[in-house]
Amino acid sequence: MFYPSRLLAVFGPRVGRMTQSAYIIGFVLPLVAVMGLSWLMFVGAPGLLGTPGHFALAIGLTVLMVTGDAHNIRRWQDLGSSGAMYRMMRPGVVLLPVLAFALQFLVPAQLASAGDMEALAFMIGMEFGGVSLQPAPLVLLAVTFVGVVGNVGYLSLMPGQQGENAYGPDPRGGMPVPGMPVPGMSAMASVRGGEANDPVKRALADYQARQRAAARPVVNTVRPTGGATFGKKR
Predict the structure, then answer these.
(1) Structural domain includes residue 4
(2) I want to staple 119 with a disulfide (CB 3.0 to 4.6 A). Which of 108, 110, 139, 195 is the partner?
(3) What is d(CA 105, CA 109) in angstroms, rounded to the nearest whole number?
(4) Among 130-139, 161-170, 185-194, where is mean pLDDT lowest?
């Protein structure tokens, strides 16, 4: 499935890892700001900010759309996960609210235009009495809210893996935890262990050690026992 964020993926790389603080500053705070601005413009004080507010909201949504996937995927990778669950569930963040909007407004409008009096009464009630969410749209929006808040809260609170993992070095620059295998070291140790347990390689190593010992030069440490003979008469 194609996602619009891939158009500007160069500004939000998905390779590597991300710390908690970078995730909060780069994604959580902008998300809260956009949600607060949306509430202010459409519920709290409609028309207060006017056209500049709409531009600011559009820019904020664009930034979140471009960088949101990258921030979340890199944060999951910092925890040692590929983020497969996030990748699978992220379409619901868009599709479920769109479906809720359709059930709340579009479907009743179509039914009312077709002569359904109950749907017409519902539309008139929303026009004069305010919007009242129906059970189905309310459930869809609640599921979306719980999923987004759960994902953001988990990624904001969970500390990342210390040391290097399968997705890159530790962005905090920390050392590996004692007792944790370092990538590459376990494989080297297993290779060395296999060589030590191989009888052929062990016999070859013993033979080479004997050859090196036989090739060493022998130092003569025997000292002459006789005295000096220089100038001795015969």
Answers:
(1) yes
(2) 108
(3) 6
(4) 185-194
Q: In the prediction, which pLDDT does 55 show?
A: 84
**Could you tell me the residue range of the domain that residue 83 belongs to?**
1-89+161-173+181-198
DSSP 167: T
**11-20, 69-78, 175-184, 190-199: which has the minimum mean pLDDT?**
175-184
Residues, the chain, total?
234
Decide if 83 contacts 72 (C-beta within 8 A): yes
What domain count does the chain have?
Answer: 2
Q: Which amino acid makes up residue 60?
A: G
> In this structure, is residue 107 part of a structural domain?
yes
CA 162 to chain centre: 14
- Gap between the Cα atoms of 191 and 185, Å rounded: 10
The string of DSSP letters for 111-143 reads: HHHTT-HHHHHHHHHHHHH-----HHHHHHHHH
In the numeric block, the tokens 């601005």 are attached to 37
Cα–Cα distance list, 141 to 55, 88, 98, 99 (Å): 25, 18, 9, 9
pTM for this prediction: 0.62
DSSP state of 166: T
Cα dihedral 220→221→222→228 (10° resolution): 100
Phi, psi of 165 (to 5 degrees): -130, -165
